[in-house]
Amino acid sequence: MKRRLRKQEYIFVASMLFGLVFGAGNLIFPASMGQQAGAAMLPALIGFCITGVGLPLLGIAAISITASESLFDIGRKVSVRFAYAFTCALYLCIGPLFAIPRTATVSFQVGAAPFVSHDVQTLGLFVFTLIFFAVVLYFSLRPSGILIWVGKVLNPLFLLFLGILIVTAVISPMGTVWDAEPTSTYSEHAFFTGLLEGYNTMDVLAALAFGNILVNAIKRLSLSEPKDLSYATIVSGTFSTALMAVIYLALTYVGAQSRTVYGLDANGGDVLAHIAAYYFGAFGGILLGITITCACLKTAIGLVTACSTTFVELFPRSLPYPKYAVLFSLFSFAISNVGLSKIITYSLPVLYFLYPIAIVLIALCLLEGLVGCHRPLYVYTMIGTCAAASFDFLRALPSGLQEALPMMDFLRTLGDTLPLAHIGMGWTQPTLVGFIIGVLVLLLQRRAR
């Protein structure tokens, strides 16, 4: 007998997934993109939504369709070693190395820094992040209540404050966006630039990482049959990603408007700060600070919970869950005090490497639903993807690191020869070649039987 969730339960689960995935980066990057894209905001937004909305939904569907309970289960389709390597790299990226520290740093820079004297910014960041991660650790040590804390408390507060800001900006626009000339690469490749900008949200990685939390949360609502779980996961994911798309549209549009008043800002945080100040004055800074902090808190709690749970499962003889939660919180606290600019600078190369792998892995899982699971398709396709993504990784490294690496000029030239490399899609052709080789190997294996 089929069992379906009630409407209220779907809303709670979708709210939880949205709350876990949608963080500070989802606010600052579309606002900044809108300001830079100007009149080209629509193609840029479409590209951004593909990587920031469509792919996360497909990632959730992939977990559901293949009946995988974790990212490791998906990675194991390539090999066990790949599963360990990719799972650890992904969780560390969206966890203590980049995403978790970014939540605290963005919260401080947008919500607290304007009210702190320039002379004591370093001390202010230290105190703020200390309190921030104390709160994160408190909730992370109670993972069974994550549906309540994130889905029913923090997320509604965040949506309330964000809604006030966006509705006000839409009702009383600063100016027209269609007279603003696109800047930089948005003038020629708005769609692909928006596509790559969506990498910064880390939503595809987060969707894969949070898949096990989503499945476990649905199981607690008395669902156990695979088909019922799959249906509930996809429906909840659709609701969640649809809400994300609406918010991205509003933020991009509002960000483009702000350019007519303030010109180009240095980053998305400044864009949002100017918008808040324009409409609400000093109170706008407080409103924005509450909005950003709620967004970051709920994301950080979800990330610490997901990372700790995953590492306990991967390495059951290492540390218990509470110690991992403490370890990741303390490490994230330390990294967050390095500064937002450095965190973003060093995260980009890793994202350019991990994102193509995640995208291809999702595509293979969806294909599995049609043709079944065949290991040669996974292995050879992933070889082509990893090889090509390595060039994007090297190209995005900070200049100081590039100069220190041997043969960097040769590797950069070799990477630039790949088709579509100039728009960040150089990995697509080697991936296709790898897939074709995988198909040929599969056919040869079948003939040999």
Plain-language structure description:
InterPro entries: Brnchd-chn_aa_trnsp_Livcs. This is Branched-chain amino acid transport system carrier protein. Keywords: Amino-acid transport, Cell membrane, Membrane, Transmembrane, Transmembrane helix, Transport. It is a multi-pass membrane protein. This protein is mainly alpha-helical. It is 79% helix and 0% strand. The protein has helices spanning 7-21, 24-37, 41-65, 71-75, 80-97, 99-112, 121-140, 146-171, 186-197, 203-209, 211-219, 226-262, 268-280, 282-314, 321-336, 340-371, 375-396, 399-404, 408-416, 428-448. Helix 1 (7-21) packs across helix 8 (146-171) and helix 7 (121-140) packs across helix 14. It starts with 6 loop residues before the first helix and ends with a helix. The mean pLDDT is 84.
Helices and strands in order, then pairings?
Elements: H1 7-21, H2 24-37, H3 41-65, H4 71-75, H5 80-97, H6 99-112, H7 121-140, H8 146-171, H9 186-197, H10 203-209, H11 211-219, H12 226-262, H13 268-280, H14 282-314, H15 321-336, H16 340-371, H17 375-396, H18 399-404, H19 408-416, H20 428-448
Function: Component of the transport system for branched-chain amino acids.
GO molecular function, one term: L-isoleucine transmembrane transporter activity
Keywords: Amino-acid transport, Cell membrane, Membrane, Transmembrane, Transmembrane helix, Transport
